[in-house]
Model the fold of this input.
Amino acid sequence: MPRFFLSQPLAIGGLVELPDSISHHVHVLRLEAGDMVTLFNGEGGEYTATISSIEKRRTLAEVKTFSPRESELPYAVTLAQGLPEGSKMDWIVEKAVELGATAIQPIAAQRSVVRLNAERAEKKLLHWRGIIEAAAEQCGRNRVPHMCAPVSFSDWVGRQDLHQRILLSPRAGQSLSDWARHHPPQAVSLMVGPEGGFTEQEESIAADHGVLLLSIGKRVLRTETAGLAALAGINALWGEI
Done:
């Protein structure tokens, strides 16, 4: 059954007009009046709806039933990703959603080649949020992960968070898997450097702010691989139920 995200209130018995983007998708899928779809708005659970009418520029759906089904991890994971080159961030965002990330925080690190001014950052945010919504539709999540505005490395490490921040570094003496085996499931932030990783200076500054430095193995992973491997590893060790 096709799944669509709507950023609006939903209630059983309600008649909703689907946004243009979803209406276009309905036409592409060649759905017809009477076909069933799943709708969710990110506030929890999902709704089954019946398409009541399809016009060229307008599609209406009637909400029929509600299911409280959720597929979230029992612990929050933020992926704090050093801004990479090109379209790598698109892929990272999509896959992080599939793996259960609660939030994604872009970081402008010393080795980040990409530099976003205010206008470019806003456009990128809208683009990444669209990727997040599409990924949530595809993977069956009824909660939409938060896409944070890009911040500098110093701003990020200087924050006083209530949960454990972990910087992934090939220079660290302890591994993520070893640490996770000896700690209960909890909210964490995984910090991943851009191409070339974080500098030794950045790692030192992070450690001074209470950030834990851990490795994810003997092999050096690419920036678009490291955070996703860490997410998958934590899922395997802490479980999803």
User: Anything to note?
Assistant: The chain has two domains: 3-67, 77-238. Residues 84 and 105 are 13 Å apart (CA to CA). The first helix runs from residue 20 to 28.
